[in-house]
Design goal:
The chain is of the alpha+beta class and 356 residues long. It has ten helices and ten strands. A hairpin with a 3-residue loop joins strand 9 and strand 10. The longest helix is centred in the N-terminal third of the chain and has 27 residues, at 27-53. It starts with 9 loop residues before the first strand and ends in a 6-residue tail after the last helix. Residues 73-181 form the Peptidase M4 domain.
Length: 356
């Protein structure tokens, strides 16, 4: 399958959270959330049309023309929504005065470096794909997204959400959707979609840990720490350590993520709960990584990467499919019956996902 022909439009802030904000008594907050939802819905429609037409992202340069390092370009949308915008920083150029541009550039580099150093992957497509990002997208746009071709960051409303480049794991999360797009190409619906989201949370967290040189026990296991405004009662968008505890706020509502299959959410919203039920495989990875200890990308991350890229994970995979294949991946890389193999079995058992 030519997987790069089937991109999906993936946002960091889930629609169910924005839906909640549209009910706010604060008309400004409600209006901004509504505009963001309307924009995201339009983008998803455009992405589906592009997919039906079979229009693929631009191809990477021939092998002999690719640089060894990343090839980053950051654009400024200047608060419009036409992409990519005006080029403001290219690969190798010095930092400018715009902190948002600098954070986006650094985040693209951090993502490239984690995948290259930890997994031997050469950019998102493993073929040197240039990494493009657009900042200052729209007016008070409360989201960031991967559109199948590039990263796009809103500035937030400065109230409930701050600048979407503020946390490197957000950047890594969205770019990791590209890795999934070019590998297992998980369908963005129900459990396959929740796995798609979880892969991005896992690798987004690993990118942050790699950048900070943290061990599993030192990491916060939060996705989007620093993104929520100072008056919001919450610490992040999601918690891999304790799904369901990232926020509990009058405007945002309560974090709905389950940690185990006992609390799996059956819903028709959010493409069948892709941002909600991702808490279950997220928690399984956290349990595995902290059980094994050390640098999470070295063993736990390697097992997840092998599972995602091994060629056996179907586009409609369920949690049990990923669990079974991850057990096999652990045995293949680290030995049947070894510490890693047993730890994977234990982690999935703890969240109630069968491995056989």
């Amino acid at each position: 399958m030519d997987t790069h022909r089937h991109p999906v439009f993936c946002t960091i802030v889930p629609p169910h959270l924005l839906d909640r904000i549209t009910l706010s008594e604060d008309t400004r907050r409600a209006d901004i959330a509504q505009r963001t939802l309307e924009h995201d819905s339009l983008q998803r429609t455009r992405r589906r049309i592009t997919t039906v037409r079979g229009i693929a992202p631009a191809l990477a340069a021939p092998v002999d023309e690719r640089p060894e390092g990343p090839e980053r370009t950051v654009y400024d949308a200047e608060h419009r929504t036409r992409l990519p915008g005006t080029k403001v920083r290219g690969e190798g150029s010095e930092p400018g005065q715009d902190a948002t541009v600098n954070r986006a550039y650094a985040g693209l580099g951090a993502t490239f470096e984690l995948f290259r150093s930890a997994f031997g992957r050469h950019s998102i497509d493993d073929a040197g794909l240039p990494l493009d990002a657009t900042v200052h997208y729209g007016v008070e746009y409360n989201n960031a997204f991967w559109d199948g071709r590039q990263m796009v960051f809103g500035d937030g409303d400065g109230d409930l959400f701050l600048d979407f480049t503020v946390s490197v794991d957000i950047i890594g999360h969205e770019l990791a959707h590209g890795v999934t797009q070019y590998t297992a190409n998980l369908e963005y619906y129900k459990q396959a979609g929740a796995l798609n989201e979880s892969m991005s949370d896992v690798f987004g967290s690993l990118i942050k840990q790699y950048t900070l040189d943290q061990t599993a026990d030192q990491a916060d296991w939060l996705i989007g720490a620093g993104l929520l405004g100072p008056e919001v009662s919450g610490v992040a968008l999601r918690s891999m350590k304790a799904p369901g505890t990232a926020y509990d706020d009058d405007e945002l509502g309560k974090d709905p993520q389950p940690a185990t299959m006992d609390d799996y959410v059956n819903t028709t919203r959010d493409n069948g709960g892709v941002h909600i039920n991702s808490g279950i495989p997220n928690h399984a990875f956290y349990l595995l990584a902290t059980d094994l200890g050390g640098k999470a990308w070295e063993r736990a991350g390697q097992i997840w990467y092998d599972t995602l890229t091994g060629g056996e994970l179907g586009t409609k995979a369920k949690f049990s499919d990923f669990a079974r294949l991850s057990v096999a991946a652990a045995a293949a890389r680290f030995g049947d019956g070894g510490t890693e193999h047993q730890a994977v079995l234990k982690a999935w058992s703890q969240v109630g996902v069968p491995t056989e």
